[in-house]
Amino acid sequence: MQKDPKKIDIQELKKTYKIEESLHKLDEDLIGLSSVKKRIQEITAILFMDKVRQDFGLSKYYPGLHMSFTGSPGTGKSTVASRMAELLQNLGYLTRGHLIVASRDDLVAQFVGQTAPKTKDVLEKSMGGVLLIDEAYYLYKPNNEKDYGGEAIEMLLQVMENKRSDLVLIFAGYSEPMKTFYRSNPGLSSRVAHHIDFPDYSREELLTIATKLFQERQYKLSFYAEEVFIKYLDLRCQLPLFANARSIKNIVNRACFRLASRVMGETGVFTYKSLTNITPYDLILSTLFLKGLETFPMTKIGYKNDMRILFQILEYRKIGYTKKTLRYFTEFPLYIWKNYSK
Fold first, then answer.
1. Does some domain include residue 266?
2. Same domain for 144 and 37
3. Distance CA 147, CA 168 (A)
4. How many Å apart are CA 78 and CA 130, to the nearest integer?
5. 81-95: per-residue pLDDT in tens?
6. pLDDT band at 291 (very low <50, low <70, confident <90, very high)
7. Do 116 and 265 fall within a single domain?
8. What superkingdom does the record give (predicted)?
9. pLDDT digits (tens, 9 = 90+) for 161-204
């Protein structure tokens, strides 16, 4: 048996290509999305293996890198595209590793002769990196004879084939319209090697994202605020145009704005707590709550014999008690929601 003349330390090679570092960043940047992360790890593995095979003198196989990201807004498509660009640069498949995000308006013009220069400009800026085309299905309008989206698509097809060694295209958008888009463009579909679906975030994942965003800004959800925030999520998710993590970011920003406004109006002395604690009041001021909110008093009852704290709901209409009964208790508002759909 012939002895293997060459051995390569896998761990050292991973360090060289910064594989673990890039995947760790992806895991830190995104909450959940385990199926997406698994696909990225699989793609990384085949690319890494291709590099190792080249080091052993085996034939070079250039795998298709163009991708399709489907899913609702705010599910991390741009973040994954950015991390993918970084991975591909570290592995030597891209020279610059930057991300350019474009839409139909960046590529397609309204008049004859203007689409080609616009598309060419975007492609030149993207060379050496990743070009993410958001809502890509808007490029194709078959019922409009005066539409120039087809011209942009033809240019993209040429670049996908001829410049694939230094440009990766990612087409992104809602799942169903993207299926129609690919069916109408067989040449485009055949050049897209990886189709990755981005699921919507669960309630628990959205809460984790919100908590992380608050912490990054050095805020925190105070007593009862988390319960109110969860209900806010339940209501917000029912409305049109909910954009997952993107909407959560907006919610967090507005809560911080309301805290600032409340503190400025209520106190003449700033404390650490007043500057960092998001209270229920900073959430219920949203117009979202006006359609289905009732308030009842809630009391916090502390036990001195141990460190446990019991929260008990006391509704005036059902429980008769005197003010003396509550002299040691601190009252907090409890927010009870009616059926939001009514």
1. yes
2. yes
3. 26
4. 10
5. 999 999 999 998 999
6. low
7. no
8. Eukaryota
9. 888 788 999 999 999 999 989 988 888 888 999 999 999 999 99
d(CA 152, CA 167): 16
Q: Which of 147, 167, 198 is the last residue of a domain?
A: 198
pLDDT-above-70 percentage for the chain: 81
Question: What one-character DSSP code corresponds to residue 317?
Answer: T
**What does the alpha-carbon distance between residue 331 and residue 125 come to, in Å, rounded to a whole number?**
60
Could you tell me the pTM of the whole model?
A: 0.79
Q: Which two tokens stand for residue 183?
A: 């069916």
- Residue 277 bridge partners (DSSP): 220
Cβ–Cβ < 8 Å for 31, 205: yes
CA distance 197 to 211: 25
Q: Is residue 271 within 8 Å of 222, Cβ to Cβ?
A: no
Beta strands in the chain (DSSP E): 67-71, 99-102, 130-134, 168-173, 194-198, 220-221, 277-278, 293-302, 309-313, 330-337
Res 256 pLDDT > 90: yes
pLDDT of residue 281 exceeding 90: no
Residue 330 belongs to domain with CATH number: 1.10.8.60
Which two structure tokens, joined as six digits, stand for 313?
């709901």
Instruction: Pull the structure tokens for residue 205.
Output: 């994942």
CA distance 285 to 259: 11
Amino acid found at 301:
I
Distance separating alpha carbons of residues 183 and 297, to the nearest angstrom:
58
Q: What sections of 149-224 are H helices per DSSP?
A: 149-162, 175-183, 186-191, 203-216
pLDDT, greater one: 13 or 106: 106
Please indicate, yes or no, whether residues 277 and 179 belong to a single structural domain of this protein: no
Number of domains in the chain: 2
Residue 4 lies in a domain: no
Both 51 and 190 in one domain: the answer is: yes
pLDDT band at 296 (very low <50, low <70, confident <90, very high): very low
Quote the crossing angle between the two packed helices 149-162 and 115-126, to the nearest 10°.
30
Please give the residue range of the domain that contains residue 330.
203-337
Torsion, Cα of 135, 138, 140, 144 (10° steps): 180
Residue for token pair 């070009």? 131
